Amino acid sequence: MKPQPDIAWNAGDMGCGELVVKLKLKLRDELAPGEVIQLTATDAGAPEDIPAWCRLTSNPLLYQDHPEYFIQAKE
To answer: DSSP labels for the chain?
Structure first.
């Protein structure tokens, strides 16, 4: 079941390097701890890259169904 997002961001086909930098800034600047971003990322590497980034940064990946990813800002 998809969580209710606090904000949504469509990153389109942005590559992973640029995407994770901008995602980090959005989580830091636009979300409070525990809030959820709905990310839409159509890049072919996203299904592997987004979950790996979430594990490395301790931002929980709540739901994924490419191209949609729901990420919670870490507490």
So the answer is: -PPPPSEEEEEET--HHHHHHHHHHHHHHH--TT-EEEEEE--TTHHHHHHHHHHHHT--EEEEETTEEEEEPP-
